[in-house]
Amino acid sequence: MSEVLIKGAHVLTMDQGREGDLDILLRGGVIAAVGSGLATSGRVVTAAGCVVTPGLVNTHHHLYQTLTRAVRGGQDALLFGWLKTLYPIWAKFGPEEIFTSTQVGLAELALSGCTMTSDHLYLYPNGARLDDSIAAAAEVGLRFHPTRGAMSIGESDGGLPPDALVEREAAILEDMARVVDAHHDGAEGSMLRVGLAPCSPFSVSRDLMREAALLARDKGVMLHTHLAENDEDIAYSLAKFGCRPGQYAEDLGWTGADVWHAHCVKLDSSESAMFARSGTGVAHCPCSNCRLGSGIAPIRRMRDQGVKVGLGVDGSASNDAGNLVAEARQAMLLQRVQLGADAMSAREALEIATLGGARVLGRDDCGMIAPGKRADLCIWDVSGIESAGSWDRAALVLAGPTRVRDLFVEGRQVVGDGRMLTLDMPRLIARQNHLARRLAS
């Protein structure tokens, strides 16, 4: 069985705050040992002048949106106006657009240190299926948690999306069951876990939310949706349902350790306390929240209450980047802007980006560098200009870099010397740009 030994690096393990100059031995997709003076007959990766962290975990993304970055007409809009600008463009997608944009988004994440990501695909125009993004991810090599999203209430029924992008609820539930049965792997070390993810309270019915929760628990998979993203979202919930989003979620069975909600910018203290009691997770998307003017999510309060919090880059039409370590920096800075310079440390932000995200996605086998955990880790070269003069090599969130030197997933190298090893990037980027131009025209 092949081994990889990483030597000479400063290691942040996220294992009870352990930190120091350590060697890491990878064997069979698992971290076999962490310590000093380790040896191997296999491959040795020299990491002098580097910091090693667990792989970063992205808990919320819409990978298809990498084809619609910086779209004119949507750059300065709030959430609802932004969606209305983008829906007609997304309606022109098909299987090729889903496949290509997924690979571009995953490569961007990998280069920023991400080893595991979720994806929320909630529209399926022109024959597109979740299977298209699953096939794309298999070639990239990241640990993948795709979710079968859905929209069922179109404009004619009082919803936000155009009628052409919604599906019948019976067909949605049937395909949800099909995708889980075809692709989900719940085993430890799994590279692919499928979740169910009706898009949002303003694009699906209460019945679909309730039925999806029942189906997910029958199949043993997780649930995901958007919740309490901005003031418009709160107003919609109060007007349509007569309650706040947290109560809406709880009433429909959308709380618990198998549920995580994206954004939660406007959760009040009683709602976040309920999330803490129930073990419900939150995907914090600071850059997207800034871009759409949604506000600053109360992450300090949530963490202090015991809520599980991870980071999400959100879709590249509302970020418009997919850099996860930059997201950790933004999360830290926003809490400091709101609450003071001691509100969140660089190491806590990195913990949220790694161990925090793994816990949100229910992955006890990932998120830290410790014997028995999966061999997902990043090597960051801190000998360059970004870190020149830094007194703290491990303060990546403060001084950079924001791009990894090497990335290992399940012990396999996906990024080497700052380059994707699993994809032909010039060819992929050319194809992506061609598709984007075709959509724009």
What does the model show?
With 441 residues, the protein is an alpha/beta fold. The chain folds into 2 domains: 3-55 and 366-420, Urease, subunit C, domain 1, CATH 2.30.40.10; 56-360, Metal-dependent hydrolases (TIM Barrel, Alpha-Beta Barrel), CATH 3.20.20. Helices cover 37% and strands 21% of the residues. It contains 14 helices and 17 strands. It has helices at 79-90, 95-111, 130-140, 169-183, 206-219, 231-241, 245-251, 269-278, 286-291, 299-305, 324-339, 346-360, 396-399, 425-440, and strands spanning 3-12, 19-27, 30-35, 43-46, 50-54, 56-58, 114-121, 143-150, 195-198, 223-227, 259-263, 281-284, 308-311, 377-381, 406-409, 412-416, 419-420. The strands form 3 sheets. Strands 1, 2, 3, 4, 5, 14, 15, 16 and 17 form a 9-stranded mixed β-sheet that branches. Strands 6-7-8-9 form a 4-stranded parallel β-sheet. Strands 10-11-12-13 form a 4-stranded parallel β-sheet. Strand 16 (412-416) and strand 17 (419-420) form a beta hairpin. The N and C termini lie far apart (52 Å). The mean pLDDT is 96.
Task: Provide the low-confidence segments as ranges.
Answer: none
The main β sheet shows up as: 9 strands, mixed
Structural class: alpha/beta
Mean pLDDT: 96
CATH class of the largest domain: Alpha Beta
- Looking at the structure, the CATH topology of the largest domain is TIM Barrel
Number of self-contained structural domains? 2
Helix content: 25-40%
Task: Give the CA-CA distance, first to last residue.
Answer: 52 Å
What is the 3D shape? globular
State the fourth-level CATH superfamily of the largest domain.
Metal-dependent hydrolases
Strand content: 15-25%
